[in-house]
Amino acid sequence: MGVMESELKIWLQARVSDGRYQHSVGVLETVTALARFHEVDDAPLRLAALLHDCAREYSNEDLVAHAEEWGIEVRSVDRQSPVLLHGKLAVIIAERELGLSEPAMVSAVRWHTAGHPQMTLSDKLFYLADVLEPTRPEGWVLELRAIAHEDVDRAVLTAIDINVGHLNRTGRTVDPVTYLFRDLLLRADSTG
Ligand SMILES: [Fe+2]
Ligand SMILES: [Fe+2]
After folding, report:
1. Which of 23, 35, 97, 104 fits a 20 to 30 Å CA distance from 129?
2. How much distance in Å is there from the Cα of 192 to the middle of ligand 1?
3. Considering every ligand atom, which ligand is closest to the CA of 132?
4. Selecting from 1.10.3210.10, 2.60.40.10, 3.40.50.620, 1.10.260.40, what CATH number does the domain 5-191 have?
5. How many angstroms is it from 190 CA to the middle of ligand 2?
6. How far apart are CA 43 and CA 85, in angstroms?
7. pTM for this prediction
8. What is the pLDDT along the chain (192 residues), one digit of tens a residue?
């Protein structure tokens, strides 16, 4: 038997700021609606929502130290911008502290930070929910919300561009994997 959502909420609340907690609950609500609309299993994604940012408020030093300790590859880009590691760390924390390792949950959490060329539909819906949840700024969210129901890949492309634009404006590093993923989606888009 897995951990119950209510327990997981209490667990998360003890680890992150109130704003981050509200964001996570927002992702939970948004991903549930998106998953049901697209007929994807929402159960692992609901758990993913409460786990995905559990390491988001770790210091840079802690992110790198835990990654090294737990055998996660630390690339030079991760040293430059340790926050890129927070999804991969969350996967290990879920397993170690909660015994959670459901594959669809794991891959949604692992790839939510930077995206990945091998993302499944379920992973993509999670990536979108992270950007679309109700505590995000209103304007662009509305448009993206409509696209997310019509064309998931096009919505993901838009979400990537929003994320990359935000990282550029705030002077933060973009994971090279994000560009690989974006190129793949663009190619798929132009072929059909
Ligand atoms: Fe995150
Ligand atoms: Fe998030």
Report:
1. 97
2. 31
3. 2
4. 1.10.3210.10
5. 29
6. 24
7. 0.95
8. 467 899 999 999 999 999 999 999 999 999 999 999 999 999 999 999 999 999 999 999 999 999 999 999 999 999 999 999 999 999 999 999 999 999 999 999 999 999 999 999 999 999 999 999 988 777 778 888 889 999 999 999 999 998 999 899 999 999 999 999 999 999 987 765
Reading the block at residue 129, the tokens are 């929910």
DSSP structure string for 16-56: S-HHHHHHHHHHHHHHHHHHHHTT---HHHHHHHHHTTTTT
Span from the CA of 141 to the centroid of ligand 2 (angstroms) = 15
Closest CA to 57 of 96, 23, 86, 98: 86
CA of 160 to the centre of ligand 1 (A): 13
- For ligand 1, the distance from its centroid to the CA atom of residue 87, given in whole angstroms, is 6
